[in-house]
Amino acid sequence: MSFSLNTRTDAWVRTFQRRTSPAINLVCLPPAGCAASFYRAWGAELPADIAVRAVQYPGREDRFGETPIDEMAAMAEAVTEAVRPLFDLPVVLFGHSMGASIAYEVARRGEGDGRVPALFIASGHPAPHHRDPRRVHTGTDDELVAELRRYPDNGAGVLDSPELRELLLPAVRADYKLIETYELRHPAPIPAPVAVLRGVDDPDVDADKAAAWGDLAPGGALCARHDFPGGHFYLREQRSELLRVLTGIVGEQVRRPQRPGAPASGDPAAGRPR
Asked: With pLDDT > 90 as the criterion, what percentage of the chain qualifies?
């Protein structure tokens, strides 16, 4: 499939709580089947100097009339271009589930022109070179809906309506195709400290698959790892605790005072585990 992509920042990025003087841009990438509003409530619980910038993929909410993207390269290139202006401040990349792999590709692409994140946080997703092969996107609509119902806390109840199912499934199928056809043939380190979060009962991300993100971290070591009660969508019920932990990691890796001669927080070497 070919795409005519609008890569303007205002087409791709939503800010639900405006900040007068933000010091950090927290760029959040949604999971498969979800939209920017997945992160709508976050800004109200985060410190005033952190601006939540939620990515809006084509084919959902106010971009409903656009064709969903079902190829990782096209998605990553468009997001990379759209978030480019946000690097006027230190950027924390946060991706949940599919969003974590997209965030990885965005981080890798930004390295070429020096626009690297100050911190990378992967949530609810195996390291991209440790994903199990799946072909859910090739199944029937009923099989796709059954897959969504594996996660009782993902809001899949809206698919009980035949009308909503018909409207929403094309974007969901595109997301599943994007992540299921994505192959990381040449794993390369992320040019930023890497933290990993997951729900302890997540059926798709066991401890080993989460720890494998360390292979992509500078020096082969994660800067932080936290397990939360809950399943794949733990971050809904555990939102307040998650944001408390996230704020702590940002404080340690992005805000911490620089040692004399140390690189600035936006530098690829800043905040690396010692």
From this structure: 69
How far from 185 is each of 86, 113, 123, 130, 181, CA to CA, in Å? 29, 22, 22, 11, 12
What are the Cα distances from residue 148, in Å, to 60, 64, 75, 83?
A: 17, 20, 22, 29
Longest distance between any two alpha carbons in the chain, whole Å? 62
Of 103, 54, 108, 45, the residue nearest 246 (C-alpha): 45
The model's confidence at residue 133, banded by pLDDT at 50, 70 and 90, is: low
pLDDT at position 255: 84
Q: Please report, for the chain, the start and end positions of each structural domain, with discontinuous segments joined by +.
A: 9-255
Tokens for 188? 């390369």
Q: What is the mean pLDDT of the chain?
A: 86
pLDDT digits (tens, 9 = 90+) for 205-219: 999 999 999 999 999
C-beta of residue 98 within 8 angstroms of C-beta of residue 71: no
Q: What are the catalytic residues? A: 97
Measured in degrees and rounded to the nearest 5, phi and psi for residue 62 equal: -75, 0
3-state secondary structure of 37: helix
Identify the pLDDT of residue 152: 62
Contact 69, 82 (CB under 8 A): no
Assess contact for 86 and 106: CB atoms under 8 A: no
Domain with residues 9-255, CATH architecture: 3-Layer(aba) Sandwich (3.40)
